[in-house]
Queue: 2 jobs
Job 1
Amino acid sequence: MKKMKKIMAGSTAAALVLGLAACGGAPAEDTDSGAAEGELSGKVTVWTASLAGEPFDSYFADIEAEFETMHPDVDIVIEDIPQGEMEQKVLTSLTSNDVPDVVNLNPHFMSNIAAQGGLLDLTGKLSEGTETMYVEGPFEAGKYDEGLYALPWYLTTTVSWYNGANFEAAGVSELPTTPMDLYETAKKVTDATGKPAYYPVINDGNAIMEKMVTLAGGDDIVTDGVASFADNAAILEYFEVAQKMYAEGIIPQEAAEGSIKTGQELYMAGNTSLIEGGVTFLGPVESGAPEIYNASKAGQPIAAADAPVNVAVMNFAVPSKTDNEAAAIAFTEFITNDVNQLEFAKVAGTVLPSTTAALEDSYFTEPGDSPKALGMKQAAEALDRAEVLIPPTENSAELRDATKTIFVKTLQGAMTPQDALTELEAQWNAAFEKTGETVSF
């Protein structure tokens, strides 16, 4: 499996924007997989992931109607499946004759299903020009074992959220970019507020894995299935600083639980001032803690200016057992084209499109001055250095579990940071040896 490539905005963006203007906002006819209007026919069942209810119901109703107007003999049926059930439902459907034609997957689910022969390889089957529409990283996330199994749809990237009022009270005007900067900044905020300042998101361990890759600054921490990060100075410094801040009350005790939800609750209550997350993080803050929302500001993730940061990708794939391959591919191209991706991003309000032209729209370049709008602008700017930092692997659950367990022990002082990284490296290598994977990231 190859390392995901860095997202580049690309020189095609201006040309694509001009193309959109020329067509007056209507999707180009090359989105129908080369078929002339009206040639496609039959039923296309589309499974989306956890997008039921408004405003998404109206968006998908419009998508159905427009595609069916373009192709009167096609019947589009869109069904929403809970995200947690999607992978198993797709795999189960492949053992029967009741198979969807288009499915909404993340790269991990996509690669697992593709590895079992469950997805159609789209290589050579797309309309001319389709592949050049997308920013590179999300497009590469649709590849597995040299084949192309999905087209990218919407994206999320991580930004830093901070309480501007607390930062101002502490005399802090810039976000930290190194672990030691983080300590010094967070200590000033804690001293000024009397409350913990920084909440490190751990989740299931994946967030810490991504932070480790970012801190490595573009150098692999795993090469051909061999982990090597115990002697990385920046990663070691982060573990040391995190342990120090936890012991000094700069990181709240609740951080050992580590979920973004807990961090969000603390931030809303004014009990932490700096946290990293997607734009979706601010939704509950806006409705549940308007004073904190109005004080919120957004910036780039805590990393060097040229360090890679993570992008999460949701895509669309076509199951290999589809009975309507041509129409399924045509619809996949249609729903992921520039116009429809831009409209979906506006409807969702907290995600980014994956086409270069849509990202050039003023909705992202001139979003306004609300905290959420500025967060979207920072998220879009982060795409210049964003990658899928952790590629899907067979042993991903073991890597995440080891990372979470050892990082929490480090926070709580049960391990020295150096011993923690040495042990974590050993556990990762044991996991890679067991599966025989030769991945690099």
Job 2
Amino acid sequence: MAEMSELLEEAVHGKGRQVYLFEGDEYLARHSARELAEALVPEKDRALNFILMDASAGAREIAQHLVTIAMFAAPKAVLVEGADAFAEEVDAERELGRARDLWQGKRQRDGARRLLKLVRPAGWGAADIAFGTRAAASAAKWRKEVGAAPSDDDKGWLQELSAWALLQKISAPPEDLETLVKAVERGLPKRTHLILVAESLPPKHALVRLAADKGAHVKRRAERRGRGIDTLDISSIVEQELGPLKKRLAKDAELELKNRLGDDLRLLASELQKLALYVGDKPQIQRADVEAIVAPVREEEFFALAEAVGEGDAGKALQLFADELRRKANASSVALPFLGGVASAMRKALGDSARYAGLGPRELGYNEYQAKVFPDLEAELSARKQKVPHPFGAWLSYKRSRRKPRAFWRRMLIHCAEADFDLKNGANPRLLMERLLVEVCR
């Protein structure tokens, strides 16, 4: 695996390699790829010799850019982002999100082609993706045939994209990765470089092999020195965002930021930019600044939500929902994930209530539960090849399942299904979720 410093040194001295593949965290991989492209192509030549593309353009168009000799005798770099699109199986949620980002970032052609490529296996065209119109596919059909469904907030941009794609006669590019691979294997014009960016590609993928044979494969992920979030090293991102502004991040502020945001590096970078603006002329960002404007959004918040509804803590559940609303300012994009968290907690409580029904009315202490009950649970889950929880966590779940009779958990699960139907049929997401959280915690 190549080192970034080594590749930059080669590039500056005109010894760049034919192919580079940057794989890993999207934020770090994309930033490193652009840094390398700028090292390969002098600033005065970038207007003509630096080409930024999305993989949705298709392998054939990328290959055409590569084999076209640069107008001026200078290095040429073709940087292709989102190369995950060349994988046989893609993450539909991620692809839908990337198409949204491209469209809203005024890269209409890339956004349209990426979305049309995603829906092509379902046999859909531009007219089918005008979500919310009578002739277009429903959310249920999206989920069944594509693997991901847009929310009500996506109606606007999807309808715009559909109309634009129909007007421009845009279609998904053909599946012709072999064209690109063969073009590189035959040899690119002198001082021409292909730079690919992907979050993850299979180890035996053609592009991974191509990078290994013809250039360099770089993995860019934030390192951890241990398992906790406090061990995540974000020094490079802090330097990248705050260094040019001559600002520092206090240690306790950094820990608070990581505790609130987790390891989403793009989100960390975005929040650092906001914090730099918030503190104004102050040279250092303090913990109080983080607490003032950064809402907690880590995955652990959904574990906290399950804990809150399991224990009947309506105040905590509503606060978690309010925190997420404050960050996204969009109730629809918050409500469905929260509804999923509530439904998951209800299913677990219902299952635990059935599992422990024969233990009698007396609540078991932890030691007694661990000795008499947990071994059977461990054997059952192991036989099903399911994850075995920690005994203390299993005991807490046992205690929560006893808070209400089984009929209550069953009724609340039905309420979750009704809420899901209402959300997808125009109900006010904020009012609906607040009412549901109060109901399940009562």
